[in-house]
Specification:
The complex is a heterodimer of chains A (111) and B (114). Chain A is mainly β and 111 residues long. In chain A, strands 2, 4, 5, 9, 10 and 11 form a six-stranded mixed sheet that branches. With 114 residues, chain B is mainly β. In chain B, 0% of the residues lie in helices and 56% in strands. Chain B is built from no helices and eleven strands. The interface between A and B is medium-sized, with 25 and 28 residues.
């Protein structure tokens, strides 16, 4: 079982729709979870961090964490073509500073 | 400011060359990281430096040699690389290497080994 799993997609949504990206992880002691956005040929850019169960909202982005189910999600409301990118779910393992990434989900927002 | 800088942006080297990648941050972060990213794959951790000391080496071949001269600088020395080492090399930093700190990535160095 991979430590962090994501559906690789592509996930295609029309402009203005809600895009839902999902991630599961295997390490039960992990406390910190991140979503990074990566455009083709660029480096990962932090979108959201979440540490507690529940929802965390920042503009059009909402991260959701359920530690009991070992599940993290990212919702993007009012999706724009500029949101088209690969979204990487990342989990910090214990207190090591070791960040483990999922395979990434490619999002395509069609005008 | 969450800027991490990396030089060079692109590097082409032969298998017998020696080269170095450089990473710099001025955010006062005390943890710095090297990642390797192959095309259409996620970043993979190579090394972690915490307070200028190597704390994690993810069984990286010795042809990659990291160095942390001070708290702002991180180098990756390359020697006798193989074509399969061609990848995007990413540097990141965080306040400390703990279970909560956000890692911020530099723009990367795209390396091609011929």
């Amino acid at each position: 079982q991979k430590e962090v799993e994501q559906n690789s997609g592509p996930l295609s949504v029309p402009e203005g729709a809600i895009a839902s990206l999902n991630c599961t992880y295997s390490d039960r002691v992990s406390q910190s979870f991140f979503w990074y956005r990566q455009y083709s040929g660029k480096s990962p850019e932090l979108i959201m961090s979440i540490y507690s169960n529940g929802d965390k909202e920042d503009g059009r982005f909402t991260a959701q964490l359920n530690k009991a189910s070992q599940y993290v999600s990212l919702l993007i409301r009012d999706s724009q073509p500029s949101d088209s990118a690969t979204y990487l779910c990342a989990v910090l393992l214990g207190n090591t500073g070791k960040l483990i990434f999922g395979q990434g989900t490619t999002l395509q927002v069609k005008p | 400011d969450t800027e991490v800088t990396q030089t060079p942006k692109h590097l082409v080297m032969g298998m017998t060359n020696k080269k170095s990648l450089k990473c710099e941050q001025h955010m006062g972060h005390r943890a710095m990281y090297w990642y390797k990213q192959k095309a259409k794959k996620p970043p993979e951790l190579m090394f972690v430096y915490s307070y200028e000391k190597l704390s994690i080496n993810e069984s990286v071949p010795s042809r990659f040699s990291p160095e942390c001269p001070n708290s702002s600088l991180l180098n990756l020395h390359l020697h006798a690389l193989q074509p399969e080492d061609s990848a995007l090399y990413l540097c990141a930093s965080s306040q400390v290497a703990s279970g909560k700190e956000t890692q911020y990535f530099g723009p990367g160095t795209r390396l091609l080994v011929l």
